[in-house]
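Lecture notes, unit on protein representations.

Consider one protein chain, 524 amino acids long.
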Amino acid sequence: MTSAHPALSALHGQPVIIGAGLAGLSAALFLAPRPVVLLSRGALEQDGSSPLAQGGMAAAMADDDSVALHLADTLAAGAGLCDRDMAERILSGAPQAIEELQHIGTAFDRTAGGALALGLEAAHSRHRIVHAHGDGTGREAVRALTAAVRACPSITILEHVDVRRLLVMDGALCGVMLAGAAEGAILRTRQVVLATGGAGALFTHTTNPASSFGMGLALAARAGAELADLEFVQFHPTALALPGMEGRRTPLISEAVRGEGALLVNGAGERFMAGIPGAELAPRDVVARAVWAQLQQGEQVFLDARTCLGTGFATRFPAISAACAEAGINPETHLIPIRPAAHYHMGGIAVDARGRSTVEGLWACGEVASTGLHGANRLASNSLVEAVVCGRWVAQDIAGIAMPAPARRVLGEIPPAADPAPARAILSRHLGVLRHADGLTAAVRELLPLAEQSRPASDPALVGLMMALCALQREESRGGHFRTDFPTLAETRRSRITLAAARTAALTLEARSAPASTSLDQTN
């Protein structure tokens, strides 16, 4: 058994934000002056996906643009599954989010006349992408937010802390179980914000860091929260294809490169996207499947930026240029080898307009949350905006609630550190760009015994199991979810799942029932 760590005694009762990417940092800063604890799995600015974000932030800020146009593009990309009201509300807050980031010191790129430089990305009908340092938008925004958070006296930062469980009593949050810098400690709180990022590292080829394997989803599921749209994984079509990258973060070649005119060609030099509506700037799922089809035919696929950017490539995309140079590729004169890679998870913890989950005392924002903005396929550069806007919503909601007294005493057994490798192998085989009932059924049967155990593989396997079940139940192809056995659109519905429902659904597939002591319903 573990109990409260003495060093944490002064922090009991304060709201706790888990995750220090754009969403977590924003929520912490917007909560000021209310005291709050910010937990980061690594060092600030160094962990999570936000610092890696290249594409930028989408906001209707040009004279020829509007929220209505931005919304129309978002709804089109979302393939019928966006929550229109939520999407409109989030996108309406995008310009203010840009202004707030500028106010705290984010240095966005500007034109020679001093105006914000607005770029174009796939499936956007207007130039509305705000960038920083070319392809360093996430890094710059995180830098500015981190500096502001470190300077804010109401925020207590705990770095190198791993959250293993959310503790629930009488249906409400009562604490978080920590490991790392606070080994074996329990922080008693009734207000928790999950801002833990995505689940791309559950796949062999991913643009995400190793820590993004869906731990926030596992925490929420084991606490009893409802999850939504887990089957929708966005595979970015242009990750750098290098040997030996299996299980490691693959460098991303930003959509903005195609926005500048770069073309996709196969080994024979054929521009295979030319006859597809939108061509290289078609929605990401369309491009990813086209690239995947070429690879399945034995072709190599390349991004050709030699004509459109040439000697200006390194100036416009310094981080991408450096990643290519490290691999011995010069984009000014060479074709860039690419492949699809798991990039963004449209699904997540089901939240309402205030960021509240279905568990009392649990909020979520950023990629770990499912707001309904992205639908079946995220529109490029909407995610960073969503993180800031929804981070503010969550902060405002918590600030409007009297701080509840912490539980008097909370105990629990600390689970082992998570290991996503076993689940990663299964999901990569069966839940990739193309899916089929046979593979999805196999995934459920392989993941269930892993999820039922109290072992390092259990939490990642649980997330993978719930994703596979949602994908199996969606007998259609829509956005990032493509079933080769159901290749057309069917009913428009968002999926919902809980841990209890996942267990029932898995057992209907005649999966092995877990022993009572290690069942999926165990929440510690």
